[in-house]
């Protein structure tokens, strides 16, 4: 057995079988490229589901992490730290909001927002205790906790994990009439992905986000935008909501916020929402820790220049042009530097295409059997995009 096989065997023997990774054992990464234990290089077109937006080991972010590692990494929120305030203020300013509640993972941010919305409904809107409801959307993906999978429409996510607590109403994504019909007097929030990533990079119809925002204002409910994958420059804008000049009541952020180095997530809102929390009502030992705050501060500073957003927008146009007209493809959806490629029936599955692509030096990931997701780091070059599309073309052709 070679080293890769040995390491894979260890994972298989001692790890939970909750993932089905491609047969690649990665050991190093730099920019848009990763290298396996055998020295083979791959163009990374997944970017850890947008967590590596700035590329692997971006020098500026690594320097920030290393500097903080020599000072203080964890103190818990029982004390103030010298890194948290700058992180919170910078992120609040980037979002145009009053306050930030830092957590670690995307699912934690979603759970935090659900708690905030319910408490807001009870204390601000006057919903009767225990009656709060939240509108969600078919095809959603917001995480893997039991609360969240309880309103998923994907059987792989929810079957066998109940009972669920309820309180959620799901409507078709992109259907404004269904949204209005689902909002009742006990509705406290609408939780939406401005682009549905796990569903295959599904972009809503033009004007839909504005319609969602208007419905929330009309019915006095919170618009919660899950920008955990779509936010922080991925779509060519700071937030995917910016594509329609929509400012939600609550932003949910994560993945790229940690710079591809540490898990960082956040709920960002104005005081009317955030101040439903008081000491003891919510928290996290690791949320807002000094290391995470130091890296997050640098991420925010990089995004504040606007250069990453502009780069994703320009490269996204190049990606869309390169993907147009591929044989064996039924449809392509591109939003910034993010794409879903639907494979034609009768051809290889998305998993087969991703396995073939990996063997040729390109890493991407399947979703829902017939869609290949593409999300290169934003440091990718036009030439690397062309190279990746050429490999994908060969992988589809077989």
Give descriptors for this structure.
single chain, 398 residues, alpha/beta, seven-stranded mixed beta sheet, 17% strand
**Structural shape:** globular
Instruction: Output the structural class.
Output: alpha/beta
Question: What is the element string, with H for helices and E for strands?
Answer: HEEEHHHEHEHHEHEHEEEHHHEEHEEEH
Q: Extract low-pLDDT stretches.
A: none
Strands in their spatial order, largest beta sheet: 4-10-9-8-7-5-6
Query: What percent strand?
Result: 15-25%
Radius of gyration: 21 Å
Description:
Helix content is 37%, strand content 17%. The strands form 3 sheets. A 7-stranded mixed β-sheet has the order 4-10-9-8-7-5-6, with helices on both faces. By secondary structure, it is α/β, with parallel strands linked by helices. It contains 14 helices and 15 strands. Helix 3 runs antiparallel to helix 11 (290-303), helix 4 packs parallel to helix 11 (290-303) and helix 12 (307-323) packs parallel to helix 14 (382-397). The longest helix is centred in the first third of the chain and has 20 residues, at 106-125.
């Amino acid at each position: 057995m070679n080293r890769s096989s040995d390491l894979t065997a260890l994972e298989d023997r001692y790890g939970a079988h909750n993932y089905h990774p491609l047969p690649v054992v990665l050991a190093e990464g730099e920019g848009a490229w990763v290298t396996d234990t055998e020295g083979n290089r791959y163009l990374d077109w997944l970017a850890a589901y947008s967590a590596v937006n700035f590329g692997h080991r971006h020098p500026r972010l690594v320097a920030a992490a290393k500097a903080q590692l020599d000072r203080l990494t964890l103190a818990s929120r029982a004390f103030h730290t010298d890194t948290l305030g700058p992180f919170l203020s910078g992120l609040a300013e980037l979002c145009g909001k009053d306050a930030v509640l830092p957590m670690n993972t995307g699912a934690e941010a979603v759970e935090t927002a659900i708690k905030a919305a319910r408490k807001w409904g009870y204390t601000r809107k006057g919903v009767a205790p225990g009656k709060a409801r939240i509108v969600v959307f078919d095809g959603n993906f917001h995480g893997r906790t039991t609360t969240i999978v309880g309103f998923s429409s994907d059987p792989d996510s929810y079957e066998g994990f109940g009972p669920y607590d309820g309180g959620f109403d799901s409507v078709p994504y992109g259907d404004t009439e269904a949204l209005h019909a689902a909002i009742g007097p006990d509705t406290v929030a609408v939780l939406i992905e401005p682009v549905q990533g796990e569903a295959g990079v599904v972009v809503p119809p033009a004007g839909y986000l504005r319609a969602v925002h208007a419905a929330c204002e009309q019915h006095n409910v919170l618009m919660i935008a899950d920008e955990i994958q779509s936010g922080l420059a991925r779509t060519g804008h700071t937030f995917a909501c910016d594509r329609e000049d929509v400012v939600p009541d609550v932003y949910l952020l994560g993945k790229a916020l940690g710079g591809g180095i540490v898990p960082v997530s956040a709920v960002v809102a104005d005081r009317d929402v955030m101040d439903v929390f008081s000491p003891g009502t919510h928290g996290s030992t690791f949320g807002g820790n000094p290391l995470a705050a130091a890296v997050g501060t640098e991420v925010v500073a990089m995004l504040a220049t606007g250069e990453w957003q502009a780069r994703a927008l320009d490269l996204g146009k190049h990606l869309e042009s390169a993907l147009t007209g591929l044989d064996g493809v039924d449809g392509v959806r591109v939003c910034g530097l993010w794409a879903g490629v639907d494979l034609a029936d009768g051809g290889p599955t998305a998993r087969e295409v991703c396995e073939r692509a990996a063997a040729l030096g390109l890493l991407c990931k399947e979703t829902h059997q017939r869609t290949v997701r593409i999300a290169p780091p934003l440091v990718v070059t036009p030439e690397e995009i062309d190279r990746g599309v050429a490999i994908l073309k060969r992988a589809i052709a077989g």
